[in-house]
Amino acid sequence: MLNALWLETFATLAETGHFTRAAARLNMTQPGVSQHLRKLEAQIGRPLLSRQGKGFTLTPAGEAVFDMARARREEERQLREAIRADDPEAGEVAVACSGSFAMALQPAFWSLLGAAPLLRLRLEAMPLRGVIDGVAEGRFDLGVVDHKPGDPRLEAERVGREALCLLLPAGVTDTRFAALEELGFIAHPDGWLYAEELFSLNYPKDFRGAEQLAVRAFLNQIGQIPAPVAQGVGYTLLPRSGYEAFVDRDRVAVAELDHPRHRDLWLLRRRGRELPARVERVARLVTEVAARLEAAEG
C-alpha cells in the first residue's frame, strides 16, 4: 500500500508545479516536501520527477501515480459525501421475519419503494432461528419474531402483537370442535403448533392433540393457505397478518373464540450498531405495520 501522506504531498506538488508553493499549501517546509517525494519514489522504485533547473516535469511513472492520487481523492470525496448525507431513501435494507408477517409487510414495502427509487429492500421469510442468527451475524439489518430472544448479540423492542386466528369460510358460524373436524383442517408447516396453542385453550375436553386433527389438505405457500377456506372446503389457523394479507379475505371469517391467543411482535437489531437512516426508516415502517395488527385486535 502506498503511503497516503506521501501520495497527497506528491499530488499537491504535481498540481502546483513548484516545491515552495506545494509546501505553503500543505503547511510544510520545502525540505519536508522533498523528503516525502524521496520516500514515495523509494516505495515506487522509480523516479517520479524529471528536473530541469528549478522546474520539473512528471516522468511516465509520475503521471501514473498522479492519476491514481486524483482517483483516490475522488473516492474519498464520494465516501465523505455518502457518510455525511446518510440518505434515508438510498441503499439496501434487509429484513427477515415469518412468512405471515412478510405478507403483511409487502404492501407497505412496495409503497415505500415507489416513493424512494434509490432504495432497495430485501425481505426474506424464514423460521425463527434463522431470523435471530441472521440479524446477529449481520446478514439482515432488522428481524421480526414472536418473542423476546435471550441472545446477547441482539437488541429487541416490542412493537405490537397479533392474534392467532381460526379462519372459517365466510358465513360459517359453528365453531364447535365437532363441526371443525367435519369441515377439515387446512394444514401447513406451523399449523399444528398453532393448533396446540389455540385449541388446547378453547377445546380442552375435545382436543386430543394436533396429530389427531382431521386434515383436509396441506399447503406450504403462506399466501395460498387461506384459499381452500375461501372456497368452503376447510378451516385453518394463522396469525392475523396472514389473514390480513390474503387477497380474498372477504370470503373468509375470523371466528370469535372464548379464549383468544396472542403473540407479541419484537423488532430485532444487532446490539450496539448505529443504524443508517434508511434502516431507521424501514424500522419505523415495520413498527407501524405491527401496531396496525395490534389495533385490529381492538
Automatic annotation (TrEMBL):
PROSITE patterns: HTH_LYSR (PS50931). Residues 1-59 form the HTH lysR-type domain. This is DNA-binding transcriptional LysR family regulator. It comes from the Bacteria. The keyword DNA-binding applies. Keywords: DNA-binding, Transcription, Transcription regulation. It comes from Limimaricola soesokkakensis. InterPro entries: LysR_HTH_N, LysR_subst-bd, WH-like_DNA-bd_sf, WH_DNA-bd_sf.
